[in-house]
Amino acid sequence: MKVFPTATYTILICGLCNQGLEGEAQQIFEEMEKKKCFPTVMTFNALIRGLCKVQKLEEAKILFFKMEIGRNPSLFLRLSQGADQVLDSASLQTMVERLRESGKILKAYKLLRQLANSGVVPSLFTYNILMNGFCKSGDINSAFKLFKDLQLKGYSPDAITYGTLIDGLQRVNREEDALHVFHQMERNSVSQFGLFTIILMKCYCRKRKWILAFSLWMKYMRGLPDHNNERLKLMEKNVDLGNIEVAVRGVLEMDMKCKVVESSLYNIFLTGLCQAGMLDQALKIFNVLEECKVSVTPPSCVYLINCLCHEKKQLRNVSPSTRSGISSSSSYSCGATPTAAPGASS
Questions:
Q1: Range 123-191: architecture per CATH
Q2: What pTM did the predictor assign?
Q3: Does residue 184 register a pLDDT over 60?
Q4: What keywords are assigned to this protein (predicted)?
Q5: What residues contact residue 18 under an 8 Å CB cut-off, 6+ apart?
Q6: Percent of the chain at pLDDT above 90?
């Protein structure tokens, strides 16, 4: 019986999963084991990803655990059958603790040695794949459990790990937990911190929590060089008092002095004010940005115009030249529903 290299099986499994044929991919995987061709971490990753894509999360979880059990099918069968089923790391820990407490320390030790000697260690990519599947299905608790588990096993979450979890938490309206994960990301100095500031700001603005979005913006700016913390606190206080135009103008002056004006943050905040129905304030911010020659993106302009038209307001505060520029840069009609317009983008 001819046995193909593991790489050949892995490529075939990956291709089948990409075509949505996860059932055939599972058959190939089982054929590998029968032929004593042991899967690598890449093989497991390909099949787990395929199962997650078609929402077969329970099968993906079992495969993940089987990955840790590794090249000992009989051990996996023994643990996964019977009254005391072991189908994840938590239940395995419970079994080992029960053996230890009942005085069967040697048996527990042998079991752990078998696992250590036979397992294929999941990579961070494996965890990211499975977490993404859980988040998209709304099972955020399982995703959080994996997030903690990977750190206990010595992995450091990367930008993809944090981004996946933050997005999942936002999907189920757990903003506080998302912010907690965001702060952990900040403490660990993970790259692309600015990108996730933008993501969270957009999420808060969509939910009309523009004050939280502004606070997050100020927190991000405190980490930039040459930005005065006391002055940034004063800008937050101005927002709390309703002096939004004064606050944004102050932030902009500071940015221009430091020569680090990130127009995307201003655009997100402008759109956030529109989403909150604060059109008078949004118009004032628009005029400040125009005055200081900060680029206002076409999507932000369209959103503002659509909201004003929806509320049957006049565009008196927008200069004719700006109105003309907005019209030429946009293909959207003035009568569109505001919520259908795209958000700010850089």
A1: Alpha Horseshoe (1.25)
A2: 0.54
A3: yes
A4: Repeat
A5: 50
A6: 6
